[in-house]
């Protein structure tokens, strides 16, 4: 049976799709067959994030409409064996019939994968509810930015009332220099504010900006962070990388000043 996890956020721009795509690939790297499904139909760019946009023939909407079998629409990521994408390149109609169709689709995929991740739309609209209804667990992605936290808190309340087995937190775009300088909440403080267990901390890393999912260099900080997140999902542990350590003490103070341009 696959673990079905919805990856969601309170607002757009926090890196939810990036987290979903890279997590699926890291899970595949440690031997788990993983599928990530794009339900963010308004900003459907999972195919681009995973470099499969030129390989799409059928998509999620075609599956739900009965125009193709799921196997015809699912694409293996070019960068990682055992990581797969079910893209959504067409708008998903606002129709309640898709709730039952989506659940049936997920049930049919249960035995084929170890993990089924759903890239959910940000916010708490109908497609968010659709994504949550097909999942058993949730990863809520946020940043330490106040508007993101405010929206994440509202989304967390919705998730708590949805009957999910487990809800975990991923803090993205973490700036170790700002944390060490007392200018940003730490991931632990974010988790305490949202009253959610912390499963992952992803740094604000230029490598993520410059590369598609699966193409992070082995020594990239973000790559190590996604590996820890994948391991935490498998083991239930809470190991997270402390990206502020390098900016503490006198040498860290100098690094912070250099980074800030002073």
Written description of the protein model:
This protein has 262 residues and is α/β, with parallel strands linked by helices. 41% of the residues lie in helices and 17% in strands. It contains twelve helices and eight strands. The chain has helices spanning 16-29, 46-49, 60-64, 70-73, 97-109, 126-133, 146-160, 176-180, 187-194, 206-210, 221-235, 249-259, and strands at residues 3-9, 34-38, 75-76, 83-86, 115-119, 137-142, 166-174, 198-203. It has an eight-stranded mixed beta sheet, with helices on both faces. Helix 1 (16-29) packs across helix 11 (221-235). The chain is globular and about 60 Å long. The N and C termini lie far apart (54 Å).
What would you call the quaternary organization? single chain
Rg of Cα set: 18 Å
Described by the principal axes of the CA atoms, the overall outline is globular
Briefly note the structural class of the backbone: alpha/beta
Uncertain stretches of 5 or more adjacent residues: none
Helical run tally = 12
**Mind describing the biggest β-sheet?**
8 strands, mixed
The separation of the N and C termini measures 54 Å
Portion in strands: 15-25%
Biggest sheet strand order reads: 3-4-2-5-1-6-7-8
> Helix and strand string, N-terminal first?
EHEHHHEEHEHEHEHHEHHH
Helix content: 40-55%
**Mean pLDDT score:** 89
Number of strands: 8
């Amino acid at each position: 049976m696959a673990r079905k996890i919805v990856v969601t956020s309170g607002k757009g721009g926090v890196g939810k799709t990036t987290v979903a795509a890279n997590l699926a690939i890291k899970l595949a790297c440690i031997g788990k067959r993983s599928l990530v499904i794009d339900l963010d139909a308004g900003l459907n760019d999972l195919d681009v994030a995973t470099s499969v946009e030129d390989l799409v023939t059928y998509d999620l909407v075609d599956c739900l409409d009965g125009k193709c079998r799921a196997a015809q629409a699912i694409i293996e990521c070019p960068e990682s064996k055992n990581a797969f994408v079910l893209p959504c390149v067409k708008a998903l109609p606002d129709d309640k019939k898709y709730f039952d169709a989506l659940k049936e689709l997920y049930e049919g995929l249960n035995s084929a994968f170890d993990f089924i991740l759903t890239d959910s739309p940000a916010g708490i609209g109908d497609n968010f509810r659709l994504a949550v209804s097909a999942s058993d667990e949730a990863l809520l992605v946020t940043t330490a930015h106040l508007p993101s936290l405010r929206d994440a808190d509202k989304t967390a309340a919705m998730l708590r009332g949805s009957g999910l087995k487990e809800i975990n937190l991923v803090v993205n775009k973490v700036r170790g220099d700002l944390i060490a300088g007392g200018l940003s909440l730490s991931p632990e403080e974010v988790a305490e504010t949202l009253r959610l267990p912390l499963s992952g901390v992803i740094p604000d890393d230029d490598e993520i900006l410059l590369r598609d999912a699966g193409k992070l260099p082995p020594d990239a900080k973000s790559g190590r962070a996604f590996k820890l997140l994948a391991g935490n999902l498998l083991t239930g542990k809470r190991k997270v990388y402390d990206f502020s350590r390098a900016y503490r003490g006198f040498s860290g103070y100098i690094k912070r000043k250099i980074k800030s341009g002073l």
